[in-house]
Design goal:
Elements lengths: L4 H4 L8 H8 L3 E5 H12 L7 E6 L6 H9 L3 E4 L2 H9 L7 E3 L6 H9 L3 E4 L2 H10 L4 E7 L21 E2 L3 H10 L3 E6 L10 H14 L7 E3 L19 H19 L4 E4 L3 H4 L3 E13 L2 E6 L8 H5 L5 E5 L2 E2 L5 E7 L8 E9 L6 E4 L20 E5 L5 E5 L4 H5 L5
Parallel strand pairs: 1-18, 2-3, 2-10, 3-4, 4-5, 5-6, 6-7, 6-8, 8-9, 9-10, 12-15
Antiparallel strand pairs: 1-11, 11-12, 11-17, 13-14, 13-17, 15-16, 18-19
Helix pairs in contact: 7-8, 9-10
This protein binds ligand LLP.
Length: about 425
Amino acid sequence: MTEYYSIKMNFFGNSDPEKLVKEFGSPLYVYNEKILRQKCRDMKNLVDYPFFIPNYSIKANSNLNIIKTVREEGLRADAMSAGEIQLLLHAGYKPEELFFVPNNVSEAELKYAVDNGVLVSVDSLSQLELLGKLNRGGKAAVRFNPGVGAGHHEKVVTAGKKTKFGVNTDCVSQVKEIAKKYDLRICGINQHIGSLFMEGDSYIEGVKSILAVAEQFEDIDFVDMGGGFGIPYRKQEGQEALDLASFREKLTAVLVQWTEKYGKKILFKSEPGRYIVAESGILLGTVYATKNNYGNRYVGTDLGFNVLARPVMYDSHHDIEVYRNGKPQNQGATEEVTVVGNICESGDIIAKHRTLPAVEEGDILGIMDAGAYGFAMSSNYNMRLRPAEVMIKENGEAVLIRRRDTFEDIIAPFNI
Ligand code: LLP
């Protein structure tokens, strides 16, 4: 068997999966602070250029403790909703460190951002009109759709001809007209081509096209190139990480060359979500039943799609590790199993026909790379409590950073 990721990274610090589940319950999201901080540093180093800053896209993981750690590392942040702005302000961010990148929002939501001094990017001409009315004489940014998309699934490709996002790149003159009408200054433009690319070329193509749009604005302060940086979800099959070093070289060259032509040093930004948090999170769950149904071996766990929606929603692959008595099981007999959760739908499958070390009831499963879009997309479906979240601190200690839901949390909103 391949080397277990959790072992290689000393992921669980002074603890082990069994102790963690005993202390904090199952299922459980566990994060590693050291890895999280390292990913932040990698991203800050994405370009060899002094005017570059990544904005953490908090939709990937909005645990307040994680946001605060990312902030300590010096990243700024992106928000997709008024709720995310509110949370970021609560985490200690200053309004000018935030960028609001919404899609189809109400006047009230736009007004919330404007009143709080957060720069807004609009992604349609109609929302630009609305922003103009609310922020006459102020600043605005515009999200363009560069016509090139990328992503691990069609549901997360957010640019190109088949997506709702962004303003077409041939609408620059309309953008300028609306801006003039409301005395708005277009201070920046942005894009996000989609989520998860493993080779940098599609991103660089996207950057080139957004820069071609940027050139048509005489006096902008920044270009935000978007997020989407992939992580290797199939490490057990030997998948390699994104080659950041060669990416850095190519991207830097494009930015430097463009800046010389533009004649003004502007700020470049990116919007990573997954890259920052995915590999710093492992989801632990417990095997409660095993059975053979008409030739299929099922491993029944508490890891339903209420806890991790990605496999069901996008057919996403997550590597799985098996632990028994706190120890990794990566030697000995293997079997082909289908790992399922405890939700009342037959699609509630976390891994189909996966070869794992022979699993027994009581074993703990570790779902790798679950830090991004894991807890963030969890729900109370079937009246299940969303899991607790624990951080393994740099000194190896396990600290609870979000308690498990309680029944009281579930009934509190009802008007009875
Ligand atoms: N910027 C914008 C405008 C976005 O919409 C997104 C993600 C990001 C940045 C961050 O993208 P990232 O670096 O994380 O790829 N739930 C899906 C991913 C949805 C991404 C939505 N937008 C998943 O689990 O794969």
